[in-house]
């Protein structure tokens, strides 16, 4: 098996790796680092927690040490927390080199970011939106000479999800040199391979870890079938059982909306679990602070939306609970990949209602892995059901009394303005669409009613006819 020296890393960098407990290259590192060091573009698709970050950080640091200048490398990533995590790896591995990195993400002060950019850092780690803002509004820095463009979670950056990065990526790709090395990494690259090949044009080297399943073997994948109304009681029961059975524990619960995330956090606190939350409606400083407290095990339960689903590396997480079944199999892969990382064991439990069974089936089909039922003593869950549901209602009422929904409206308006749309006009359009939809619905209902009426009338006539025939028949026989 190869070691880091034989892959082409300098002794000082190998020593730096050893100090961080990175002794032997993982398969993605062993296979992707040599072509990157040779100067080729690279697309690496390997399972969650398999060391993809070091697979691109190490060759960049190696190349930077041979010819240091700024700005040498640009890394793009979909979330702000992930940008900080990647920058940290550059900082630690490039420390002997005096590597200067700079983080450009939304929700933080733009002026100090502009100053940091103009200081020519070696590496810029950014989320596309904020970097594109800087490019559009300032000429105090240049990305014209970068040697590496890296897209971590590349498929997410290119897909058109709820946050669409396409326009910002276009702006960024317009100011980076055509002659560069492009590196693309993710645990779920294959679906977007075609789009990605357009970005990495320099005959990219493509490597994918060969395996039956798309999730790691160390992950125990479970489900609990539950009616919607009993879901929260199952959640409380699961966490209570886990805390009773383990001294040292760390759990992430994923949910689908910011509001649900907030309510669940309030609820879990009512049950005295040390809980903290992470979602996109929080102030950025609070998001960083909460994540740091969870990483340091000050709080052991993190309730999060999909903003925490990709890339975050928190070794202490033993359990991931999906409070809602993810709609897309690849979102499931990333969520459950927050546990069972770097060869450790972990459990993922998905709460499934009767309406989500088809989602589980498509998760199983795409990941080539079966989810097993998680055994729960139902009697115990039913014992706490009323208390849990009452607590939830109380928390919902409390949240409604705050300006949470109002903030959401303000954020929506802000987003529309940023997209160059008039929020009032958009609201009017939405209301009109709603009106048309409700008219259509009423029309459909009326037609259905009249069809039913007609059918009833026909049935009545038939019955009457039958009765008359019977009557006549009895008269004749009499
Ligand atoms: N060669 C190695 N030996 C041991 N541990 C390693 C090695 N390379 C990386 N690690 C550790 O493995 C953990 C997971 O790495 P990393 O975050 O890069 O995973 P990833 O493949 O990017 O996962 P994801 O798809 O979730 O983003 C990190 O804590 C990292 O320090
Ligand atoms: Mg990663």
UniProtKB/TrEMBL annotation:
ATP-dependent RNA helicase that plays a role in various aspects of RNA metabolism including the regulation of mRNA export and the levels of pre-ribosomal RNA. Regulates the stability and synthesis of pre-ribosomal RNA and thereby regulates cell proliferation. Also possesses antiviral activity by recognizing gammaherpesvirus transcripts in the context of lytic reactivation. PROSITE patterns: DEAD_ATP_HELICASE, HELICASE_ATP_BIND_1, HELICASE_CTER, Q_MOTIF. It holds the Pfam family Helicase_C. The gene is ddx49. This is Probable ATP-dependent RNA helicase DDX49. One of its GO terms (cellular component) is cytosol. The keyword DNA repair does not apply. It comes from Cottoperca gobio. Residues 2-30 form the DEAD-box RNA helicase Q domain.
